Amino acid sequence: MQLDSIAFVAADTKIAQDAMYRLKHRYGHITPDKAEVIVALGGDGFMLETLHRYMGRKVPIYGMNRGTVGFLMNEFREMDLTDRIAEAQTVELHPLQMEAHTVSGESLCALAINEVSLLRETRQAAKLRIKVDGVERLAELVCDGALVCTPAGSTAYNLSAHGPILPMGSGLLALTPISPFRPRRWRGALLPHGAEVVFNIENPEKRPVSAVADYTEVRDVSHVKIREDRSMKIKLLFDPEHNLEERILKEQFVE
Question: What pTM was estimated for this model as a whole?
Answer without folding.
Answer: 0.85
